[in-house]
Amino acid sequence: MGWREYYYGLNKDNDDSDQDNGDSENSTMLIGSIDCYFRQLSEKRASVREEALAGIVKVLVHRLEERVVDFVENNFVTLVYHCLWCIRKSRVAEEMENAVYIIGLVAMITEYVDTSHEVYVDVFSAVSNGLKSKVDVGKVLECLAIVTFFGAKNSDETEKAMQLIWSFILPESNSTMKKKHPSDVLLVVLPVAISAWTFLLTTLDGWRLSYKIWQGASSCFSNLLNSENESVCAAAHEALALISESNCLEKFSPKAYSEKLHLSIAYNQKSQTYCETINGRKLKLSSRSQIIQMKYLRQFLGEDGFVKHMMKNENFHDIFEFSPKTENSCDMLYEPEREKVQVRYFHRPVPIQQDNSLLPFVSRENRQILKRMTKSSNSSLSKARTALLKKKRSIQDGENNPFAVDEE
Fold first, then answer.
1. Which helix (H) or strand (E) holds 162?
2. Least C-beta-crowded within 10 Å: which of 17, 70, 127, 286?
3. Cβ 322 vs Cβ 316: under 8 Å
4. Residue 375 has what pLDDT?
5. d(CA 98, CA 49)
């Protein structure tokens, strides 16, 4: 049983409290209980720790309120420490899976770059130093992909994580990895590893990729298309499609021309705009990279958790350029006819290399700068827009009441 199915089972007895129109009192009790769960992580009894971890997961996935985000920011060091301890010392599989999952959620929820980066460093070090045989390797690779996606500060750190994941895709490239894990385990992990590797590739510009590291990757994925495992074939197909769109095929194959011809015939599918409605708001994705990211995060969180995070998680809003409709949102009453507000800002241009690779990548620092300059309520654009709205309203009030006079 995977963790998504496990947590769905946890929610079956409390479905009413998990609905947006459910009992707000139950929601408050659930959020407040996270402090109790947190204290129980220090208990010696495994059963108590297991219940506490499951409770924390339920809150972080389904109740992403402001107080929960504050809890993660204030306690992430101790929380991650407890989870890593459970992974190393626990003998209960479900407890270890819960701990792995929480680490990924912490990196996903925190809005501070330094916090998510610290989580990335801890997880990368733990995976690099080897995993216990009882730990579900697939869950660990998913966690590594998530913390790298949210916590890596540059392309070098992302590629290091991709190389670590690659050792599970092609064990021959790492002899120690092949010795540590039986071939049957590696076969089960293979589609998970390919999907995690592809997910991280979506964050890199093609010109940032190394010419030496990924030579032969496209040939490896092409060979996997003949696998009898449908999950492996689907994951390999998606990886090849993304590679073919990156316009840097020479970095993935020494025989660039023949591989490119093969891929252009078999996998060169035009990117289609993807649209769906989430709680009445449209989510529109225009690139294959964003679609892959959306699918991966949805699989990691489950359907209900993905919707909750799309509505509440600021990181998701930045990644997908999604603006949820909230009670405090201030929609424009009417469009100005003559006056407009415009703010311009300039940043150092990013050099484009000769391979003209254009996989979209914007660092979290740059996204936060853009958000502060354009979306924040204290930004120049927001202040100017507010002043303009007040002016228009006063004009409209005057038009609606032409007999009004000024009192001296």
1. helix 155-169
2. 70
3. yes
4. 60
5. 10
Q: Are 144 and 196 in contact (CB under 8 A)?
A: yes
Region for residue 216 given its phi and psi (left: phi exceeds 0; alpha: psi -120 to 50; beta: otherwise): left
Specify whether the CB–CB gap between 189 and 144 falls below 8 A: no
Check residue 193 and give its pLDDT.
96
* pTM of the complete model beyond 0.90: no
> Is the pLDDT reported for residue 396 higher than 70?
no
Place 356 in a pLDDT band, splitting at 50, 70 and 90: very low
Write the CB contacts of 170 (distance below 8 Å, at least 6 apart in sequence): 220
Structural tokens at position 60:
């972080």
Cα distance between residue 213 and residue 110, in whole Å: 31
Which amino acid is residue 286, in one-letter code? S
Q: Is the pLDDT of residue 150 over 80?
A: yes
Number of H helices, E strands in the chain: 18, 2
C-alpha closest to that of 250 among 213, 278, 211, 290:
211
Which 8-state DSSP code applies to residue 353?
-
